[in-house]
Amino acid sequence: MIYRDKIAILGDVMADEYLFGESERISPEFPTAVIRYTRSEIRCGAAANVAICLSELTHKLDLYFTSSTDIYSKKISKILKKKNINLIYNEDNKFKTTVKKRIYVGKNQITRIDYDNFVNKNKSNFLINKLIKNIKRYNAIIISDYGKGQVTDNIKKLINLAHRNNVKTIIDPYGNNWQKYNRSFCLTPNKKEFENIAGKINDKKDLIKKSINLIRKLNIKSLIVTLGNEGMFTINNKKQYYFHDAIKKQVFDVTGAGDIVCAVYTYFLSKNFSQSQSTLFSNQFASIGVSKLGSSSVSTDEYFKNFVNYHNENKLINIDEIDDKIKFYKAINKKIIFTNGCFDIIHAGHLDYLKKSKKLGDILVVAINSDKSVFKLKGKNRPINNLHNRIKILKAFEFIDHLIIFDELDPLNLIKKIEPNIITKGNGYKKNMVIGYNFIKKIGGDVKILKSKINQSSTKILDNLK
Question: Higher confidence at residue 130 or residue 462?
């Protein structure tokens, strides 16, 4: 069986142009501000923005779109290529890029001018048919429909084929005709778009009822409704639903928030996270996005800083928890550092090499021998400090992210389970003698011996006490 881990995006590509200026006086011609132009910026919009958002999580993505030959299209393509996004497009020299021009005075948007253009139907269908031919390359497909002609009724054929090939189709819908999205995996409308199809939402109970009816009517697997300052709602065809509260951050600009939700939800779903988990992560990413000006992506570093990298006193995790933790860290492309030891009498040498270990990556996992394991390794008079006390001391080190106990004489099984990027050891070790060396090299990782001028060991300390 071939594992497909690529994501395709098909949809309308637009340009978001931002004009910035300052205003210090009122026009003598009409009672409106005179804006002194200072700078401008072009960003990717619509499906191109979805691709930008997704590229923060993975480079295994293809963007299908109809391209113009105008200056906006060239600029967008340049931005996308810099993000290592693979572009599959059909060029049409008669087509003009849709542009949304936003005018700002300082940080305040005062107006928006739209230049709407529509893709030729034949050009659109050519791209859809191309994606149909490539369907088996993908784990998931995002259809970003902004009503500019890239998504035609021919999309039904793509969705049905994706359904038969177990390829998830996640759709940001548009307009009044949602029948063309039949049998898709998930729709991600905002509240206004949902009410346009299902009718006004009176309360949570009514939202649930209308969502169930829509899922049944369209024969889809799930639905996400973004509710603005009320958060997000997700429900599946088994009537399992979740409300995710809005995360209280300063909302600066909601432009592109739906693109972030669609991209992040699809990515985590493609990594086999549950619908509820994927929705939660997309809600968190979007909460960072709306704190920025205009269409903006959110990096995994920004996400990590806001939602993961905080001082966690409950660092001790068990074997059952480690799988989900590691799966998550790898999904957001974080480097995992692993080390192990008895840490019976913790000394300056331990402190030095653990600090150095953390600096090699993002997450430091420290495996600690149980009392039984220490006894087998060190003899009947060990450990000096029992497991409870050893853990209590290690928990106090802010640079340690997770502690995990193991009973075996060595941590090889744990290393195979975690598959860290790097294994570290302190003074006195050689790389090829470190437990897990052969395995870690096989999976593309490394072993680092972190030498220190602090030449201490628990054994030496005990010998000095005799």
Answer: 130
Alpha helices, DSSP H only, in 40-154?
Answer: 47-55, 71-82, 121-133
* β-bridge mates for residue 369, sequence order: 406
Both tokens assigned to 429: 């070790």
- Strand spans (E) along 82-173: 86-91, 98-105, 108-115, 138-144, 168-172
Assess contact for 68 and 167: CB atoms under 8 A: no
Q: By mean pLDDT, which of 3-7, 143-147, 247-251, 362-366 is the weakest?
A: 247-251
- What is the radius of gyration, based on Cα positions, of the chain? 27
Strand 222-226's sheet: what is its strand order? Answer: 86-91, 61-67, 6-11, 138-144, 168-172, 186-187, 222-226, 232-236, 241-244
Residue 406 to residue 414: CA distance in whole angstroms: 8
Question: Has 259 been annotated as catalytic?
Answer: yes
Spatial distance between the Cα atoms of 439 and 304, rounded to a whole number of angstroms: 28
Query: Which residues, including other chains, have CB under 8 Å from residue 179's CB and lie 6 or more apart?
Result: 218
Chain-centroid distance of CA 288 in Å reads 12
- DSSP H/E element including 225: strand 222-226
What residues contact 280, with CB distance under 8 A and at least 6 apart?
A: 244
CA distance 283 to 307: 11
Catalytic residue among 12, 62, 172, 259: 259
How many other C-beta atoms can be found within 10 angstroms of the C-beta atom of residue 192?
9
Q: How confident is the model at residue 111 (pLDDT cuts 50, 70, 90)?
A: very high
C-alpha neighbours within 13 Å on the C-beta side of residue 410 = 9
CA neighbor of 418 nearest in space, from 309, 272, 317, 267: 317
DSSP SS3 for 9: strand
The model's pTM? 0.90
pLDDT tens across 308-341, in order?
Answer: 865 556 799 988 888 889 999 999 999 999 999 9
- How many angstroms separate the CA atoms of 6 and 138, rounded? 5
Instruction: Collapse the DSSP code of 401 into the 3-class scheme (helix H, G, I; strand E, B; otherwise coil) and give the result.
Output: coil
Mean pLDDT of 435-457: 87
| Cα 20 from Cα 106, distance rounded (Å) | 7
For range 387-413, the mean pLDDT: 93
CA-CA distance, 16 to 101, in Å (whole number)?
Answer: 6
What's the CA dihedral at 156, 159, 165, 167 to 10 degrees?
170
